[in-house]
Write the structure tokens for this entry.
Amino acid sequence: MPVVGLAAPDYPDAQNELNRRGFVNRHTVHSCVGGDGVKRCSGIQRNYGGALSQNAFRITAEDFAGANIVFSALHFCLTDVAVTFTGESSYDAIWQAIPGFETEVMTELTTQLHLQRCRDLAEQGFRPAAISVAEGDAEGRLIAASGWRRPKVALDVKESLVKREANRAAILLRLGSPDLCSQLLKGSPDPRIRARLMCRLPEIVPCSALEQQLERETDVSSRRAIVLALGGYPAQQMPAGDRERLATVLLDWYRNDPDPGIHGACEWLLERWNLRDRLEEETKMLATGQLEGDRQWYVTGSGQSMILLGPVTKRFLTGSPPSEPGHELDQTPRLQFIPRRFAIAAKETTVAEFQAFCGECPQIDGHYTRNLAPQPTCPQISVSWYQAAVYCRWLSEKEGIAEEQMCYPPLDQIKEGMTMPADYLRRTGYRLPTEAEWEYACRANTVTARYFGESTDLMGEFAWSAEHADGRCHPVGSLKPNDFGVFDMLGNVWEWCQNRYDNNWTVHSEDPEDLTPLDDAVQRSRRGGAYSHGALSARAACRDAALPNSRVNTVGFRVARTMP
């Protein structure tokens, strides 16, 4: 059924009425500005017997690309796009529910770059689904938009290919050809091959070869990966002299390297080599509570490493696609950005840290089941949301943060009925992370279910879940950190977030302040999974919630703050 020459504001209503009758958009054939200055759309509607469609009209290039990311995650494929130019470019687009495909879109490129990108996508197996060209400015510059799609590959097939590629890179390194290994160890939105290679290298490559690779590597993300891979070798495989020499280098990087991923990776390897005393000496000297130089991390006065992130001005995708194992409706994908610089603790708050706080604040009940967190370096469990907020206020006072920068009221006022300051996300006091901050820190620029990929067979390297945690917590930082240098974002304990639990879904979110008064009957969000839960809970998108006064043996927290 054709729809011809409708004014753009009227086109969505006409399309929606036809949708109600069982028709969906097949093509936006024409979108132009007539002599009367009115933008008009024409299209073709077709009845597919119940097929679903999503539409977007008069959107910017950024919103068009963002909508494609979200709709693709929901298994909608771009079927048509129309671009027009009236001083600036705008886009009309149609997505249809076509499972089994992934899509890419291109906008705002020069003709030459657009063609080059087309060739790149064709080599990757994508084929064109839609293209639109409009005349741009007075010089006749062309504005082009195109959409491409290709069939998705089954997860088990992908994992098989990942293992083969990791093996190939490791064998080539052993044979003296390091280029592929160096390339695959670089950080990527899809970390599967990189994580697999990190774990495979110690099984194939002599320790000395990896040391040499570390010495010649200049890419910071590759250096992070090599440091973590070195932790996979038994101590006896590295001569004592070589290990001492490398330990000196690692301590220097831990102290001076500005990258938080290097800082965290060096800490993990030094701990694994039982060099805790030397590490603690360095940490004491670093514990100034201040950012120094170009470091993207600092250490609080009490010795907690804080990782500096943001502002996140480029929207990032949160949530999970329906095809992800464990997906729930409250994990629907959305694009978010975080318009501030913030810091998040590299580790969960430990038993030792929380009990020291309880010693100074005897009104806080610090009781917990000790056999579930048997060491002082385990995460504190049995913490209510209120207790976590009190700890953040106490820590802010200990660190000398001014009263006007406090996010929470005085200790005795942190209870039901309290309200947050209207600008608490602009204040620099310690607080709990928002869900957006938590997920951004967890993903560490990856887009897979976990910051080490999709498969669960690497869980034992990165996250404590029910499959291997032996029914209890483990010391924080025992397993490998993510690329931001943050430990235990998945598994060990659920972590309280600042937000009340909310399932209102929008495509875009700015992570705003939540000023709703605290209510004991309204759940607060928690993230990350726990030692008692299976791998399906240990995903970046997984959400959970509980009442703010509840205390459970699987729940702890980590602190965050907005940075000046």
